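User: Hi! I have a protein structure encoded as tokens and I'd like to know what sequence might fold into it. I'm fairly new to this, so please keep things simple.
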């Protein structure tokens, strides 16, 4: 982020949110007291940014879009399919993949807390853990989709899957039209985190990814 010369007296942390400022203050205190090693924190952050995150799930989805045998295996037992493929990092047990189709759109929630497939989707978004999402998505999933800017046909069934500590879900979104012949790497760029939770859909070719 660039700064004009006249801005050198400004608080460089002013662009942070209140929560981010509190986290930074807490980290500083814990570091000064010797409870936290900044180097270890950096390693944890690097791990989630490069080895764990929605890019892992995006690669899994892209593989399912181009490989019918892998897709069938994924829908039968997602954990086994991913771990036995040899193409991805090993993930934990009890992951279930559910497929979006023109007839059914799936959404994922954890009504009790915030159970989430970290090893394929990375850190959960703040809204996923919020009480309004956890309650509304069960009672009125169509309005929640509308809040995310997603409209599904009236005759498409909506199904909400409740994650637990033992069972976690990821959505296999529908492959966008116009991507015939695309490589897995190209397809993975269209897969968003929200599309794997069910509050979004895969990006269209040429659209900005969110």
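Assistant: Happy to help. Inverse folding works backwards from shape to sequence: for each of the 210 positions I chose a residue that suits the local structure. Here it is:
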């Amino acid at each position: 982020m660039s700064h004009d010369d006249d801005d050198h007296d400004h608080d460089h942390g002013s662009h942070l949110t209140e929560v981010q400022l509190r986290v930074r203050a807490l980290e500083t205190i814990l570091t000064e007291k010797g409870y936290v090693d900044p180097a270890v924190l950096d390693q944890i952050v690097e791990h989630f940014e490069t080895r764990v995150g929605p890019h892992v799930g995006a690669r899994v989805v892209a593989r399912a879009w181009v490989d019918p045998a892998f897709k069938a295996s994924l829908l039968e037992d997602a954990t086994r399919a991913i771990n036995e493929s040899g193409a991805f990092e090993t993930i934990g047990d009890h992951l279930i993949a559910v497929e979006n189709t023109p007839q059914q759109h799936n959404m994922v929630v954890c009504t009790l807390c915030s159970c989430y497939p970290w090893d394929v989707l990375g850190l959960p978004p703040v809204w996923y853990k919020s009480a309004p999402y956890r309650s509304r998505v069960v009672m009125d999933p169509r309005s929640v989709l509308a809040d995310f800017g997603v409209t599904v046909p009236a005759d498409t069934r909506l199904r909400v899957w409740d994650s637990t500590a033992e069972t976690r879900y990821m959505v296999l979104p529908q492959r966008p039209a116009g991507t015939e012949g695309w490589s897995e790497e190209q397809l993975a760029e269209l897969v968003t985190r929200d599309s794997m939770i069910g509050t979004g859909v895969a990006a269209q070719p040429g659209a900005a990814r969110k």
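A useful reference point when you look it over: Residues 19-50 form one domain. Feel free to ask if any position seems puzzling.
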